[in-house]
Amino acid sequence: MTGTLEGRVAIVTGAGRGIGRAIAEALVAQGASVIVADNGASIGGDGGDPQVAHETATALGKKALPFAESVASPGVAKHLVELAVKQLGGIDIVVNNAAILRDAFVFRADPRDWDAVIRNNLSAPFYLINAASAVMREQGKAGRGGSGGYDWGRIINIVSSAGLYGNLGQAAYASAKAGLFGLTRVTAMDLARAQITANAVAPFARTRVTDIIQPANEAQKTYKERALKIGAHHVAHLVTALCSPAAKGITGQLLGVRGREVFLFGQPRPIAKLEAGAPEGLAQELAQKFGDRFTDLTTDLEAFNTEPVV
């Protein structure tokens, strides 16, 4: 795949560390120019360190630019896209990877933490997609990428198995990630005619999140030990593949990656139906006819607590 992204311009949020940095490195290695968007905040979203973005961009070389502001506002997201166009000539790839974590059981959670997580993990990706996709569509009309139609546009949203399965104490994080998948589906639909793809990737890899896990039992301890074995470069390989010309027909999909394993997830669709009788008997009908198909309360940690292929 060497050089398959030559001429493309990418924005990767949360690109200063972990999975985001691995993705930025992989995109640059394939010829793309990348804006390293990372305000250097803690995993809880506190503080900030502009050196994180600057040091990563310096390490990536002349094809990388730093951006050290939070993208969790429409104005900053628009400014970031304008920077890509002005400094690098356009915008073709958006990877929404930045996320914060403020865990608490629903009965103890601070609504201000909920708002912060939703704003950073769901609203910020929307702001960036909103600003970038408008430019991408205009680029297509202007002939960017050649006369064969603009098929350079790629939007990748990094979601989480927590948003698919749920996990204890992660109401805000799981809700944001589940919402991000919904945003991915609508984005894919809205941009299909413009030949711009949108996909979601659920990663399993060593990150700051796995590093701070404090196991409460042996199962969680084993999960953490396994997660620490998985390098972020595996996630970067999948994201880069989805950005390649060969992936122009892949859109609206939900994929997972754990080491060398790549998963295609099913998406919620009806699996059974009944014709309801009287309201007072409906609960009993549901239990009788659907009970053996109900989804249990397995968490994502339990669902993927097996040895990864690395």
Mind sketching the topology for me?
Blueprint: E1 9-13, H1 18-29, E2 33-37, H2 51-60, E3 64-67, H3 74-88, E4 93-96, H4 111-141, E5 154-158, H5 162-165, H6 171-190, E6 197-204, H7 208-211, H8 218-227, H9 233-243, E7 254-258, E8 261-264, H10 282-290, H11 300-303
Parallel strand pairs: 1-2, 1-4, 2-3, 4-5, 5-6, 6-7
Antiparallel strand pairs: 7-8
Helix pairs in contact: 1-9, 3-4, 4-6
Architecture overview:
The chain is of the alpha/beta class. The protein has one domain: Rossmann fold. Helix content is 42%, strand content 13%. It contains eleven helices and eight strands. An eight-stranded mixed sheet has the order 3-2-1-4-5-6-7-8, with helices on both faces. It is globular. The relative contact order is 0.13. The mean pLDDT is 94.
In short:
The chain has 310 residues and is an alpha/beta fold. The chain contains 11 helices and 8 strands.
Q: Can you name the CATH architecture?
A: 3-Layer(aba) Sandwich
Strand order within the widest beta sheet: 3-2-1-4-5-6-7-8
What does the main sheet amount to? 8 strands, mixed
Element pattern in H and E:
EHEHEHEHEHHEHHHEEHH
In total, the number of strands is: 8
What low-confidence regions span 5 or more consecutive residues with pLDDT below 50? none
Helix segment count? 11
Multimeric state: single chain
Distance between the termini: 21 Å
Report the average pLDDT across residues.
Answer: 94
For the record, what CATH class applies? Alpha Beta
Into which percentage range does the β-strand content fall?
5-15%
Any idea what the CATH superfamily is called? NAD(P)-binding Rossmann-like Domain
Structural class of the secondary structure composition?
A: alpha/beta
